[in-house]
Amino acid sequence: MDSTSVLPPELLHAIFDHLGFSDVIRVSHVSQHWRVLARQHPTYWRRVVLHEAEDCPLDYIAVDRAIAQLSCSSASPIEVDIVRWFPTSGTAAQPDDVLPVLVENFHRVGSLTLHVMGDECDASAAYTQLLRQVPPSTGSSLSQNQLRRLALRNVELPEDTTLFTGLLTFRYVAEADLDFRMTADRLLAMFHVLEELDLKGVELETSTIPDGIESWICHLRYLRVFARRTSHFLTLASIARIPHVCVANPTASDAASIVSHFSEGQVEVELAEWDYVKRVQPLTIVVLPTGPTRVLEFMDYVWLPDVHNLASLSTNVSRLSFPFSHWDEITGALPHLVCLKRLVLRLDTVLNTNFICELRAPNLQYLVLLRSDDFRDSVHGPLLERFLDAFNTSCKSRIHLTLDHIVLEEWSDRLFDVLENGAEVRDKCVQVRNSFVLKAMNKK
């Protein structure tokens, strides 16, 4: 008699958490009860991971493990995450052993990630063929097909398939040298109940807008598209109701049409620092209090003052955040910040008062100076004093100042005359914090 049969399954699963995969296989042979528990264990059976790096080809142990997980598991739905690298040397293992097992068990897959990397063009065709081989009876019935999340990289979608009709999340990535395109008609035909659509490096062709696209868009909660051929698509009224929209590489005119959706209500605006790895600089606009978000990812440099609708939007901005190096660009693009209450400046360069454009925020209450990760210089008190005098002369009231991760040197007594409520200091060295406390006590 198996004495562990009286234990709750959760306790045995907790024990399995401390075992390696090969040990779980051995445990499954102890008894029928343990076999059932092992096959239902979420850590080893509900997530199949097969990752390959450029300099580290898959070994056959990893392939055999993935096959065992796909064929032996009784869990459903399962998550499959495959990343393959096919260098020109051709040393990578062939995917044929895994693909037939994946096709056979596709009806139990709830989330599928297929990323094909490298320079071998023939590799992606094998995985495209995989999607074509799934039996129609599996893909056409929503009761049998459990696939709800699909992420593809350099893998083309098959034509005329009903495999994705129940899909909720679709992420599609293509390299810059591959000409992958998606039409609005195809989206409407393939994805019936989609909630998240993320297209990166894939052009969405919307020269013709199909009937029914407005009601289809109403299901979306997240949309990320490449803006080059989506200008007509982005002007649809239903786009403005999507909670989170990210538009990659918009021109100034495309950005202006996107911003035109924000005709009323207060908004938060944040310009991120330029990401040299991704070669992108996001401008995020959040509508309050409903929360719709628009992220414009400028992969080619766009001078923000050229986005004319930002000027009209500036009257509704309640919170603004941007790198200090973009001071003139932001203040030029947002000239009338009459509702601005909170300003966050991320110091990515030395603080100075050489402004071409002055901030016009008469009702500003909070100023946060936040040090960027790659900026190490300290801030001198007299320079901070001159900055506070000059940066927003239209503001007649005093402000709350927060210095976050900034080292302050040469403290200036007159800073307390500039600030009505003193300054809040976070994460500073003890000497600086003590100097604030001492000066505050002297002022009292």
UniProtKB/TrEMBL annotation:
What Pfam families does this protein map onto?
F-box-like
> What residues does the F-box domain cover?
1-48
Task: Check the record and name the PROSITE patterns matching this protein.
Answer: FBOX (PS50181)
Coiled-coil boundaries? none
| Top-level taxon in the UniProt lineage | Eukaryota
What is this protein's record name? F-box domain-containing protein
Q: Which organism is it from?
A: Exidia glandulosa HHB12029
Phylogenetic classification of the source organism: Eukaryota, Fungi, Dikarya, Basidiomycota, Agaricomycotina
